[in-house]
Amino acid sequence: MKAPRVTLEQWRTLQAVVDHGGFAQAAEALHRSQSSVSYTVARMQEQLGVPLLEISGRKAILTDAGAALLRRSRHLLKEANQLEQLAWNMDQGWEAEVQLVVDAAYPAERLARALGAFMPQSKGCRVQLREEVLSGVEECLLNGSADLAISGISIAGYLPQQLNSIEFIAVAHPQHPLQQLNRSLTHSDLETHLQVVIRDSGRRQPRNEGWLGAEHRWTVTSMSTATKLISQGLGFAWLPQHEIAAQLAQGSLKALPMEQGGQRNAYMFLYANKDKPLGPATRILADLIIQHSHDA
Question: Domains of the chain by range and CATH?
């Protein structure tokens, strides 16, 4: 790759000439001689082959080409400053990245609020967000690919922080045969109908939580797919209330009138990787997840 002919310091000098209104003012701001500043800008123009400034009276005015290049250079210098700041933060023990693995049932709104609060405090730390289902989250924590994990499963050997609960509701389309029975339903009623369940993304010991054991079962990989199938009248399912609030309001889904078990509350838990110390960014993000887990 060909090395740039113009350095960051040269772009910084040009910015100073424009921002401070001339060579003398820029020299004073940069603590350099005026001749040094003038030479730097002249050398830039020679290297680029494009006139950057025009002298009008005692003022240096940007050419059209100079104005366009200066705008781009401001972004370049900002990125360079952020890169240097990130390097300093890392030297102080600040992580470059946090791996966050979340069960797909966890409300995206709560997570978005936590991440939104984390952004201004992140100091350039990236977040790698990954969604898994059931034991898929557990496996990421156990194999070390998660710094933080949100799961509804009790994971042996870890001390979790309890987050708020999620309400699951047994639902079907309003015209589904189960809805037409016009009475309270038992589990025996459900066993003769198609149940849609979410596939456990874990590979070692996948679970079938929420499955009634009936042979007539369809397995999908996401909450959104399950919601669409049920909304089209294809079976029934227990789905998170926050995921189907719009469909319930619109009438494309309706809660099944169960005698018992129609609503289930499941607590989520926040886990941290116990095999390495939590860095400051991970701790901040964990605190924000806990804080915003109780948001409505």
Answer: 8-91 (1.10.10.10), 97-163+268-292 (3.40.190.10), 164-266 (3.40.190.290)
